[in-house]
């Protein structure tokens, strides 16, 4: 049954590729991917080849911006366990329906996403000294399961903990704030929210 082999082998291959992508050895590539999602919206001359590993404590260097990349997941979520279970499910599936899972999306506004990321970034200030934070461009990738991202998207903060703070989600991208010394290309984008759905 060729069709059976197709859906099953394709699913197994897709899960294995995800497992490889999220392996510790690919940490830098994942961080570059996050930075690229931000830059591709307002730097038409941008190419992923211009992203490089940065000196600690930053992760990714682009021109004069030094990005510290953090992913925000649900509390107690274990992505490694998720993919291992998904691989086992794909390998033991006898029909396509065995791969289906309940999907119960919930709405979350970009405003709430930014607030959660902001609080997370604030918690991490204890890891870095004031001088380090003056030279860090903090970027959060919000990656919750089953979330349906919706407006409102207007956000602003007067208290600044890093040289700049940006948020990437599966739908929106935005530079939330910049401080003194931040890259000009980041300063020019503050408060602009890019919606990949074009709405």
TrEMBL record:
InterPro entries to which the protein is assigned, alphabetical: DUF1780, DUF1780_sf, Restrct_endonuc-II-like
Domain of life (superkingdom): Bacteria
Protein name according to UniProt: DUF1780 domain-containing protein
């Amino acid at each position: 049954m060729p069709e059976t082999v197709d859906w099953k082998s394709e699913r197994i291959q897709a899960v294995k590729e995800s497992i490889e992508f999220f392996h510790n050895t690919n940490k830098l590539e994942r961080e570059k991917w996050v930075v690229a999602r931000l830059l591709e919206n307002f730097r038409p001359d941008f190419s992923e080849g211009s992203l490089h590993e940065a000196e600690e404590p930053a992760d990714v260097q682009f021109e004069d911006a030094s990005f510290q990349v953090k992913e925000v997941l649900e509390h107690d979520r274990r992505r490694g366990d998720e993919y291992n279970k998904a691989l086992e499910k794909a390998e033991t599936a006898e029909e396509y329906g065995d791969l289906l899972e309940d999907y119960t999306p919930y709405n979350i506004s970009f405003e709430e996403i930014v607030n959660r990321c902001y609080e997370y970034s604030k918690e991490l200030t204890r890891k870095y000294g004031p001088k380090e934070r003056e030279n860090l461009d903090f970027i959060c990738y919000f990656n919750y399961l089953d979330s349906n991202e919706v407006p409102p998207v207007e956000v602003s903060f007067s208290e600044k903990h890093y040289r700049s703070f940006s948020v990437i989600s599966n739908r929106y991208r935005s530079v939330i704030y910049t401080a003194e010394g931040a890259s000009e290309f980041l300063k020019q984008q503050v408060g602009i929210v890019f919606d990949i759905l074009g709405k």
